[in-house]
Specification:
The chain has 430 residues and is α+β, with helices and mostly antiparallel strands. 36% of the residues lie in helices and 21% in strands. The chain contains 16 helices and 16 strands. The strands form three sheets. It has a seven-stranded mixed sheet with strand order 13-12-9-10-11-14-15.
C-alpha cells in the first residue's frame, strides 16, 4: 500500500539560515503549505517558489519578546498545523512552549535541557557527566585563566556562538594575543570560554530526531570540502553506529523531544570520533533526505504527537554540495576571478569533488527562484573576490541570538513582557 501523507500548513520562523532554507525545500517537495517569518525582507527563503507567504517580523537578536509576540499573533490569527523551528529561535520557543503548543504543534524539550546543550560549556559538562569522548577541554572565565589553560595548538571558543562565530585557532603566542584581544573587547569573559586541544582530523556531523527521549531518526555525514568559515561545501553520508549510540544516550538522559545535532572530529590517528559541539535543531537536512532519511517529515510527525517507529539507516556514500559555500570558500582562500570561474565550471559540469553530487541549498532545477541568490553571489565575487569573508559574516543576522538576548529570555520577567500586541507586518510574496 502507498502511504498517503497529510498535507500541512507549516510556519517556519526564520528564512535566513541554510538549515531553514533546506527544510523549506523538503517541505515544498512534499507538497506542504509553507509560510516564513524573518526580520530580513531579503532572506534566502524569499527566493523559493515553495514559500507561499512571507511575514516580516521583529528581530530575535535585539527584540526576542517582540519576535515571540509576533509569532504568537500569527499562530492565533491564522491556522497553522506545525511550528517548525530551524535555528536559534528554538531557545525562545522552549521558554514559553506551553503557550505555543496551545496554537500549533511543536516538538521541543524542556527549557533547561535546551539551554544546557545550546551552550558549549554546558554540553562539555554533559559529555563529562555521561562519559562520552571529547577533546581535552578546560573552561575559563578570565584572560589569566585562559593563558594558563592554553596548550599549543588549541581551539578557543565562546560558550555561545553559531555559524563559526566565537572560534579562534591558537597555534602560537601571536594567535593567543589576538584571541585575547577579541575576547576582551567583545566582553566574552562575562561568560564562559572553552579551551580545547586542537585535534587534526575530518569534520563530521550527525543529526537526529527524538520522540520523548527515544531516538527515532539518525543521519551522519563527513566534510569532503570546506567552504568559508569552516562550513561544509561538499558532504558525503557515512555510517556511524557509535555516534548514533552516543546521541541516543544524550537524548535519553535529557528526555529530548525534537531535533538534535552534534559536530564531531574523526582524528587522523584514531577510528573513534570526538564530540565537539551540539546544536539543538536539524542542521542542513538535505544530505539526509537524499540518502533516504527524511528527518523533516519525521520531525513533523513527532511535532503532531505521533510515536513513529525508528527509521532505517541512511545510505552511505551519498554526496551533496552547496554551490554558494563552495564559491565563497574558493574566494576566501585568496582565490582569483579565474579561480572562481573555474569553480563555477566544475560545479556546472559535476567534475572533481562534485562528481555524482547534487545541490542542497539552491536546487535551481527544482526551484528556479533559488538561482537569484546564487547568481548574485557569483556576480559579487567576480566583482571583488575579497568580498567572500564579508558576505559570509552576513549570515550573522537578526535571526540569531547573542548573550544579551539569551539573558533576556532566561530572565524571570521575560514571560511578563509578552503582552498581546497587534501587528500588520505580513506581506504576500509576489
Amino acid at each position: 500500500m502507498v502511504e498517503v501523507r497529510q498535507l500541512l500548513r507549516v510556519l517556519v520562523p526564520e528564512g535566513s539560515s541554510t538549515s531553514g532554507r533546506e527544510a523549506i525545500t523538503i517541505l515544498g517537495l512534499a507538497g506542504h503549505h509553507v509560510e516564513v517569518c524573518d526580520p530580513s525582507r531579503w532572506c534566502l527563503a524569499r527566493y523559493s517558489r515553495f514559500v507561499r507567504k512571507f511575514h516580516h517580523c521583529p528581530p530575535l537578536r535585539s527584540d526576542p519578546a517582540g519576535f515571540l509576540r509576533y509569532v504568537e499573533h500569527l499562530l492565533s490569527s491564522q491556522r497553522f498545523d506545525v511550528l517548525l523551528p530551524t535555528h536559534e529561535q528554538g531557545l525562545a520557543f522552549a521558554r514559553v512552549c506551553d503557550r505555543l503548543t496551545a496554537r500549533a504543534a511543536l516538538a521541543l524539550p524542556d527549557f533547561a535541557s535546551y539551554r544546557m546543550v545550546h551552550g558549549k560549556a554546558g554540553f562539555s559538562r554533559l559529555l563529562d557527566q555521561l562519559g562520552l569522548p571529547q577533546p581535552p577541554t578546560r573552561i575559563v572565565t578570565s584572560a589569566d585563566e585562559l593563558r594558563g589553560a592554553v596548550r599549543f595548538p588549541s581551539v578557543v571558543k565562546t560558550s555561545v556562538g553559531t555559524a563559526s562565530r566565537g572560534v579562534w585557532f591558537v597555534r602560537d603566542s601571536s594567535d593567543l594575543n589576538l584571541a585575547l584581544y577579541d575576547l576582551e573587547s567583545g566582553g566574552d569573559f562575562d561568560g564562559e570560554v572553552l579551551v580545547q586541544d586542537l585535534v587534526t582530523g575530518t569534520t563530521e556531523k550527525a543529526q537526529s530526531v527524538f520522540c520523548r527521549g527515544a531516538l527515532v531518526g539518525f543521519h551522519a555525514y563527513r566534510q569532503v570540502a570546506a567552504g568559508v568559515g569552516g562550513g561544509e561545501a561538499v558532504k558525503e553520508s557515512v555510517t556511524r553506529p557509535l555516534v548514533r549510540a552516543w546521541l541516543a544516550t544524550i537524548g535519553a538522559h535529557l528526555g529530548w523531544h525534537g531535533a538534535l545535532s552534534v559536530d564531531a572530529i574523526m582524528p587522523l590517528d584514531s577510528t573513534t570520533p570526538l564530540l565537539i559541539d551540539c546544536n539543538p535543531r536539524l542542521v542542513e537536512p538535505v544530505n539526509a533526505y537524499r540518502a533516504g532519511t527524511d528527518l523533516v517529515d519525521l520531525l513533523l510527525r513527532v511535532s503532531r504527537g505521533e510515536t513513529p517507529a525508528p527509521l532505517a539507516e541512511s545510505r552511505a556514500g551519498v554526496r551533496t554540495h552547496l554551490a554558494m559555500q563552495a564559491l565563497l570558500g574558493s574566494a576566501s582562500r585568496e582565490g582569483t576571478r579565474r579561480d572562481i570561474v573555474r569553480e563555477c565550471g566544475r560545479l556546472a559540469a559535476g567534475h572533481g569533488a562534485y562528481q555524482g553530487s547534487t545541490e542542497e541549498l539552491t536546487p535551481v532545477r527544482l526551484d528556479w527562484l533559488s538561482a537569484v541568490p546564487l547568481a548574485m553571489t557569483v556576480a559579487l565575487l567576480l566583482a571583488s573576490p575579497r568580498l567572500a569573508t564579508r558576505l559570509a559574516r552576513g549570515g550573522f543576522g537578526a535571526h540569531l541570538l547573542d548573550r544579551e538576548s539569551i539573558r533576556a529570555i532566561e530572565s524571570e520577567d521575560f514571560c511578563r513582557t509578552l503582552s498581546p500586541s497587534s501587528y500588520n507586518g505580513s506581506s504576500s510574496l509576489p
